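Final report, closing paragraph on structural work. Over the funding period we assembled a curated collection of sequence-structure pairs, and we close with a single example.
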Amino acid sequence: MIKFKTILNYSWDHFNFFRIHLLVFTFLPIIFSGFFYAANGKATGNARDNAVGVQKVEYIDSLFLCFSAMT
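Its predicted structure, as stored:
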């Protein structure tokens, strides 16, 4: 238990606005890209299909979109 308190105190002392900013800008796009990908629906095609309007967004595209939106 003492080691956990030592780690917690060390991390709390070094937890500043810049590190919170980095954590938010790293993990929020990953979380929201999962939401965006899951909200894709039941489209039968994929991004390489010729059927316009029923393509399913690939995860890498949703990840790029969410990271672009955060910056």
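The chain is about 65% helix and 0% strand. The helical segments are 2-13, 17-38, 59-70. We thank the funder for supporting this effort.
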